[in-house]
Structures
1.
Amino acid sequence: MGFYDLSKTERQKLVNEIEIKILEAISDLPSLTEDNDIIIPETIWNYSSDKDTYIRKNAYLSIGRIYFAHNDLEKKILRLLDAMLEDKNERVRQTSIYALGEIGKKDADNVFKPFEKALVDEHHSVRNAVIGALKQMGFKNPVPTIKFAKKHLHDDDPKIRREIIHGIELRGRTHPEEVLPLLKELQNEKVKTVRDMIIHVIGQISYKKGCIEIVVENLNNWTNSELVIDVSEEIIKVHTNYKFATKTPEEANEYMKTHLTLFNQ
């Protein structure tokens, strides 16, 4: 029986139970030295490896809450998450990254080193967890998240460049002026998957109130006209598909025709 097969009351009871058991397991971990290894408690391993996404989600949300509610357990939790990131089970590694993302919403200093490791994980679900974590962190704690993105923006590995670009999307939806300069640095990207992600993200940060104006103003300073044309087509597509977009597709198209320098040459 899955998490959402339970009644609302039963789900809340299970959520509380998960947090209590995880807190007990973390509290029972032995005192740490620099050398001793953490053995992942069976309870935490079971929740973190569960096939049900929502069980795993409640596990990492619980770890995040416990981190901020129990200052005396911070070091144990960070060492535990390091150990989980070494586990053979990809769901356990994924849960570790999402838990670090919860921590990073307020306390980013300790999360970026494991993120760098996870960016090159062999399993896509772990790499995708970094994207999801960065999205949430960028929304809640943008300054260190953008700094991390800048550090890896020109990574030799195109998969990492793509993941970083995707990771700053959510921040861009409300503050496009913060992510557009980063995307501009990659405007001459040759790898199709990375280039496509740049186009996708700009489309996604264009549809909320006041955003297309900022996007177009920035695009006027780009030199890659071919990419700008592709981006403009994506912006129209997004405004067509998203019924909650601030402008209609026609209004968005007219705005770009009027204000995008490329169309006035």
2.
Amino acid sequence: MTVLGVLFLAVMIFPVYWMVNSSLQANAGAATTTWFPFQPTFEGYVVAFQQQIQNFLSSMVISLGTVVVTLLFATPAAYGLARFRMRGTRAFLLVLLITQMIPTIVIANALYTLFNDVNLLNTYWGLILADSAAQIPFSILLMRAFMESIPPSLVEAALVDGANNFRAFISIVIPISRNAIVTAALFTFLGAWGDFLIALTLTSTTAVRPITLGIYNYIGSNVTDWAPVMATAVLASLPAAVLLVVAQKYIAAGALGGAVK
């Protein structure tokens, strides 16, 4: 089983190795790329940084903005669905599940007409709101599943001490739900960072162009030299890799450890 695990892991990470390998070879092409960069060069990274830095920063602004908007709406919504028993809750949750099965291109095409009417095409806010609309349902479902496990006695104790529901939510629920919130934020960031269809549909200029579109348009002008393209892909992968390493301890840790004695 260990051998099989190593083999499967090697197959999965080989594209990543080939991406890094190609980015370190000058004039790398489909037929000239060797299996190992015997004479590595960072020329591809220099070119990629010079030509794609604006797209990289655009993706960062869009992704971080999407995280903020998503958590502002999804966190209280998840707590309300977990804490209060309201008529129609199951139907609402079913609708949230159904939204996850709608293809992204359908949502993007529907938003195009709306955003065109309100002048949100080719803007940061347009992409942030569109990505947030795609990420909020999943974040609500994820955080609600965790918040349901919070003992009601913790919130009730805060209410007895004079706090209202909002104060209890801020002071009790959010700190305990930190791991779930971090997990939702991570998935939201990754979803917005890797979005392609929404950005392709809602943007048509270079003023606001995320890194995914930058790579897509970059390929056409670099079919004979893949080093800048692969270097751009490596740079685009770094934020996701760093976040996964930093946030994994919050995802793996138990949020209620020691909360109730």
3.
Amino acid sequence: MYKQAPPRPKRRKRLGPEVREEGLAAARRLLLAGGPGAVTLANIGDEIGMSHANVLHHFGSAASLQAALMGSMIEDLTTALDNVVELLKTDAAGPRTVVDHVFDAFDKGGAGPLAAWIILSGDVNHLEPVREAVRSLVEAIVGQSRDEAAPERVRAAVLMMAVSAFGDAVIGPYVRDMLDQREDAMRDLIARILPLFLIPSGIPPALPERPKPKQGDS
């Protein structure tokens, strides 16, 4: 039996901030359902009942829209980790909770595949929202610490979590399958390591850089 296509959303006049909010919400739905390739101006226009030209007017380009979407997702992550140091101090399960927030943002939130898409496109300037959000996150965590060495340790911890979460979101399922590991194996590993970065006596200092061998040395 013929099934009638659902009607498209009725087009109505909206202010710029409202269009951007609706557009980003639609972009996130498209990203999670169809991957980065589905996040196009035309698809978003269909989702929110607006022409391609109008969506283009509010976002400038598909790349700019993807950058705005990345910024929105990273802001959500920053908000979720607002009291991360207190959580780590007061809750034995705190490290795993923190790691789950970060990994969920890159995996279930779609930031990992989207970041890979942006990087492969060569337009890395559109990762700027990530840079600003990561800096804000580091500053927020450092602000809750009390010792002088905290900034360096916190930057190392955020680096470890972010790179691990990105890699796990993009290629983790395949590598875990090769090694016969649980779905949360990487999360569990990072959760066990994380506290070492955030206590003064934890992670040992980096080894000094080894001199490069001279030409002809074996």
